[in-house]
Design goal:
By secondary structure, this protein is α/β, with parallel strands linked by helices. The protein is about 25% helix and about 25% strand. The chain contains 12 helices and 20 strands. β7 and β8 (about 140-145) form a beta hairpin. It starts with about 30 loop residues before the first strand and ends with a strand.
Length: about 425
Amino acid sequence: MPEGIDLTSDTQPDDLSQLPMLPQPAQQNIALQVSRGAQRALRDGHPWLYADAIERQSHEGQPGDLAVIFDHKRRFLAVGLYDPTSPIRVRVLQHGRPAPIDAAWFAQKIGAALARRAPLHSDPHTTGYRLIHGENDGLPGLVLDRYGDTCVLKLYTPAWVPHFSRTLPALLEATTARRLVLRLSRAAASDEHLLHGLRGGQVLYGPPLEGEVTFLENGLRFAADVIRGQKTGFFFDHRDNRARVEKLAAGREALNLFAYTGAFSLYAARGGAWRVVSQDLSAPALQAAAGNFALNQDDPLVAAANHELLEGDAFKVLKSLRGSQSFDLIVVDPPSFARSKQEVPGALRAYERLVRGALALLRPGGVLVMASCTARVTPDQYYETVFSSAATAGRPLVEIARTGHALDHPVGFAEGEYLKCLFARAP
């Protein structure tokens, strides 16, 4: 098992021996009594306790202290990671019955999460995928992605920092990763003093990282910037949807909106699309897309495809192409449009505009792939909006398939079901 690093050092580590320098959770747990609504949610297995649901609290604590939650009769409900900096005051680790939250507990949870990915572990053609999906794998606020022999750990709360001495050795032992990189959400990075010298992009374990890492997905080679790229550097959740696009692409001209680093585009090319246009607002993302095509030039179909880069706002691009260009296959995979309930109406209007704009460029009989990663928008709201927008535009869609989460992105609670994707033909 690995032995150690100085997490406050600028040198690159090859072990974990200095982890005791980080704070430990308080010896005394925080006791919380919560509202009846929160009691019901926790009994149903919900992984979050919001601050406004707390009715009584024994004492204040620091991020990472363990909070034990009771009902009005002082019966145990759950125990989790306390975070006074977040509206999600407790991220629940254990429901229903008490258990010691120790190194063995974390090792068991990590092992169970990795076991769910057994079909991916045994696939030599796919070496990039999600290993731990936060709340949905019982480890709320923690994500672990694999990129070949590099693993990227992303934290969404500083409450995990005091538990590194228990979790990192278990992660390294279970994954046999050669390198472990730390990424932080904006919220987790906002209070530097709570990170105790940790920083986003830091190599926690293994050799220095020079440039991008490469990995395989269904036999295609990709490069990812795991230090500065969005999320952890790549979006693994669409792996199965990309494979579907490949099967529909033969002989087509394809447009990939919000292409990021061109994953859908590359699959379309390998599927036989002779022309592929990748649109994104980010010039660096498009250059990365070109780089991913360059990595796969040994594939004759990828090499033969005419790959064009189109920089600009997707809504404006759709308008500018109207009347001058058309396509047989259009993929629309926008970022999240709603981070709160109040933003949902605006998100639905954005989907309407994208459907109408895409259909104006889609040839008769063409395939539209419409995706949403907005958890606040329910599947019913999303699909109703897409179908009604198409009907209003005079292009009623014929559904091919609806897809959701892949194997490595399990859904463990309602808010965890964010990905929705429709494959449809238009007359």
